[in-house]
Write a sequence for this structure.
């Protein structure tokens, strides 16, 4: 019983401490999560993704893919743009002589560009590993671009790219249902052909875990969904995935049209490879916004397609990591976890510089873990986690400075409290004994025996004060020490405590011989006591002790003493009424101290203290304070008392 | 157990975890109240269940009992049981047996308000003495050992009772009317006052007159 009480009190104290840092901390977490759900963090999270992708160590050039980029020099050498059909036909024939697995022409050829159109048409029909392009999705003006007329539909892939709201390409669209049929992108068709040539068993199939995903062999190409990672409500129509750009300055071997025509390209860069022909001239306008790789130089559309094809081929053949994300519950758990770590730093490291150091270490760890995850193909929510960690860590550091101040204040008021209670105890016990000895000396009826007994009692009282001071200094143990050394747990109901005090005080027949023959009229009813702090409980008990002692001391010829505690008219009443000789005789200097204490207590409780004449004679000592009704008030007091009793 | 045919039999429940003592007490009770039906329980829980089921006239209990079987006995559990009984059955007659009555002091205000018989006996007493106190409880009387009492301690109602009975010389019926309580309550008040004044039934003595004399002696009435 006692143990659970202590545990409960510890929990209360811990709760009170967490209330300072944790409630705002949890609100910070809630706010960040809320902002993320609204999409405010999306740009930051994109930025972090791009940054981490660029930061990755370089990968070796992908030997499986060759880019034939028609650059400014080629255009100048040919003398006209678009490149005439004849030149393109010659390029294809030259490349085919090295037997590549597939060739993709990423160049708009929806109409004849003379001279040499017939020749180009023949080339298109002659090689079934040759793929052309179209634009399948209407642009803002509703325009589409047709494929070369000579190509059968199964050798036409679309080259539509889907930039995010900030204009950056981070996703690849590889399959899309159109009004007429289901279409594939150029990289997808080239990848299928390449993989099929590698191993005829590898064909494009539906996914097993996700039937709508593409699958080659055992590798399923995880699709992008609208709220993946940092994305909020993105357009995820068709079949898309996050592009895991191949890092490094030279992801692919890139040659020019003239390099190929002049035979400068090593044959094994072409044989059995996937060849992408595209424009790499700024004047032709096919540049794209990419931030996942070094973007000091312009990135061309053909290069983006190469990255996409490369990602698929390497995932299937070499298990290169796919770029994936955690499901939403795990992501939010991860964010909340870092937020709680931020709060804990403040709670457990306490000293501000340690908190900052801990925060630094935690941030490094968070970024390290997130970066490692990116290299392994997992995009973690690093930005929201970082925000909650830092806000909670530094917020708590700031709160700690405040708390430091408060602790100082609490310690000072504890000290004051100790002085006050010690004073009360000295006043209630040894001072009374001394007064009695003095009175007897004055009256001249002091026998050595009774003098000795009094002195012994005085010693015992002083010792008990010494012990209780020591206890209060070492630990605020929430106990009330009674006259005979008995200890009361101050968490017991107040009417029980008061009854114990009443019994104990009236048993002091040695100090107050009149108590033995006194008629006592008690009435202890259960009163509401939840809102009282430990200090207030102690003060109320001391009040009763003091009032009974006063009655015993001053109320001469007292024969009856009524002591009651009850609830009436919305107030709690604690009343001590005697029928002694009354106020005037009793109003000596000695009781002034007690009156001041009682008034202070009444003020604290929002109540009233009265010392009035009793009828027909005697004195009434009465403390009344309003019954606490509001749960809010009780809650406030709960936290207050929890905090006040914190060591 | 032996049953009488016509008279309404008294029901007594004894709660104690020591079978020897329990049987001893049960036997004593059985001897004394041949007509009575005596049930026994060894734990707080079993006792509470029995009481709820049989509505006894008297509960005799040891303070040191376990909460449920297999657990350790402690006086705190007995005190908690007394507290529950007083709260749930305000007119139940209760006889407590205990070696140490200190833990019971906590319940003094409730015991003072309890309207049934209430006696406390020391286990070390001779069995005749214990049976006497148990009998007292069964008859609605009250006996508390000296160390549980705080000398002359009265509820204000009891003092009013003394005034009405001995100063105004009213009958119980009249007193009940004036105090707006039942006659049974008036008798209960008398039992309590008599315990404070230490006036107990004795052969050939008029209890009321003794009470009045004692009260006058102390100065409770003029």
């Amino acid at each position: 019983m006692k143990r659970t009480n202590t545990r409960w009190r510890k929990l209360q104290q811990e709760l009170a401490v967490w209330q300072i840092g944790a409630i705002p901390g949890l609100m910070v977490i809630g706010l960040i999560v809320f902002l993320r759900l609204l999409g405010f963090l999306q740009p930051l999270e994109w930025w972090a993704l791009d940054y981490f992708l660029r930061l990755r160590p370089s990968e070796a050039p992908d030997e499986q893919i060759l880019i034939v980029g028609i650059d400014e020099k080629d255009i100048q050498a040919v003398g006209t743009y678009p490149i005439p059909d004849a030149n393109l036909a010659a390029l294809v024939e030259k490349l085919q002589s090295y037997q590549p697995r597939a060739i993709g022409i990423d160049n708009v050829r929806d109409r004849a560009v003379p001279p040499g159109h017939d020749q180009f048409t023949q080339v298109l029909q002659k090689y079934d590993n040759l793929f052309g392009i179209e634009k399948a999705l209407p642009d803002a003006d509703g325009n589409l671009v047709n494929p070369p007329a000579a190509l059968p539909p199964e050798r036409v892939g679309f080259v539509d790219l889907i930039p995010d709201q900030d204009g950056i390409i981070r996703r690849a669209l590889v399959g899309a249902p159109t009004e007429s049929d289901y279409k594939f992108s150029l990289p997808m068709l080239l990848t299928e052909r390449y993989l099929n040539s590698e191993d005829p068993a590898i064909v494009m199939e539906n996914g097993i875990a996700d039937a709508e995903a593409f699958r080659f062999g055992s590798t399923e190409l995880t699709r992008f969904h609208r709220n993946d990672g940092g994305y909020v409500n993105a357009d995820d129509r068709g079949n898309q995935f996050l592009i895991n750009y191949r890092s490094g300055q030279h992801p692919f071997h890139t040659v020019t049209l003239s390099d190929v025509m002049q035979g400068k390209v090593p044959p094994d860069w072409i044989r059995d490879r996937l060849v992408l022909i595209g424009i790499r001239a700024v004047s032709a306008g096919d540049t794209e916004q990419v931030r996942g790789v070094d973007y000091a130089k312009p990135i061309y559309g053909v290069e983006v397609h190469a990255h996409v094809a490369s990602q698929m081929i390497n995932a299937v053949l070499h298990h290169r990591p796919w770029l994936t994300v955690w499901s939403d519950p795990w992501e939010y758990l991860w964010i909340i976890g870092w937020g709680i770590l931020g709060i804990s730093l403040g709670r457990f490291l306490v000293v501000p510089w340690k908190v900052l150091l801990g925060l630094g270490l935690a941030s490094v760890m968070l970024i390290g873990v997130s970066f490692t995850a990116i290299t392994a193909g997992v995009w973690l929510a690093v930005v929201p986690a970082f925000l909650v960690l830092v806000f909670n860590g530094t917020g708590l550091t700031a709160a700690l400075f405040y708390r430091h101040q408060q602790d100082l204040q609490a310690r000072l008021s504890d000290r004051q409290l100790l002085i006050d209670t010690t004073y009360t105890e000295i006043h209630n016990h040894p001072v009374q004994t001394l007064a009695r000895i003095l009175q007897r000396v004055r009256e001249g009826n002091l026998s050595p025996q009774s003098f000795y007994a009094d002195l012994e009692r005085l010693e015992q009282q002083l010792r008990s004060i010494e012990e209780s001071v020591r206890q209060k200094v070492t630990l605020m143990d929430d106990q009330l020490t009674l006259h005979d050394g008995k200890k009361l747990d101050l968490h017991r109901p107040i009417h029980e405590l008061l009854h114990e005090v009443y019994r104990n005080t009236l048993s002091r027949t040695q100090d107050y011989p009149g108590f033995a023959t006194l008629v006592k009229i008690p009435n202890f009813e259960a009163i509401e006591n939840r809102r009282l702090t430990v200090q207030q409980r102690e003060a109320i008990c001391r009040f009763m002790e003091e009032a009974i002692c006063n009655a015993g001391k001053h109320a001469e010829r007292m024969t009856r003493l009524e002591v009651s505690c009850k609830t009436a008219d919305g107030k709690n009443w604690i009343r001590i009424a005697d029928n002694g000789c009354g106020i005037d005789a009793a109003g000596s200097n000695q009781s002034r101290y007690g009156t001041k204490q009682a008034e202070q207590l009444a003020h604290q409780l929002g109540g009233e203290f009265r010392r009035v004449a009793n009828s027909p004679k005697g004195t009434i000592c009465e403390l009344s304070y309003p019954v606490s009704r509001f749960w809010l008030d009780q809650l406030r007091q709960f936290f207050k008392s929890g905090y006040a009793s914190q060591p | 157990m032996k049953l009488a045919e016509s008279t309404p039999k008294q029901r007594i429940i004894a709660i104690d975890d020591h079978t020897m003592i329990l049987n001893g007490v049960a036997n004593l009770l059985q001897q004394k109240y041949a007509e009575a039906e005596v049930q026994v329980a060894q734990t707080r829980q079993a006792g509470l269940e029995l009481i709820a089921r049989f509505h006894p006239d008297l509960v005799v209990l040891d303070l040191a009992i376990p909460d449920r079987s297999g657990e350790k006995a402690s006086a705190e559990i007995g005190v908690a049981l007394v507290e529950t009984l007083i709260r749930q059955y305000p007119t139940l007659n209760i006889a407590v047996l205990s070696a140490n009555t200190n833990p019971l002091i906590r319940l003094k205000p409730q015991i003072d308000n309890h309207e049934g018989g209430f006696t406390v006996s020391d286990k070390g007493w001779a069995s005749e003495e214990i049976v006497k106190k148990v009998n007292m409880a069964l008859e609605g009387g009250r006996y508390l050992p000296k160390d549980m009492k705080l000398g002359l301690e009265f509820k204000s109602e009891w003092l009013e009772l003394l005034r009405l009975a001995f100063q105004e010389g009213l009958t119980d019926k009249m007193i009940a009317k004036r105090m707006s309580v039942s006659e049974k309550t008036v008798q209960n008040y008398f039992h309590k006052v008599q315990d404070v004044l230490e006036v107990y039934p004795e052969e050939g003595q008029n209890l009321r007159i003794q009470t009045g004399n004692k009260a006058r002696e102390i100065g409770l009435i003029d």
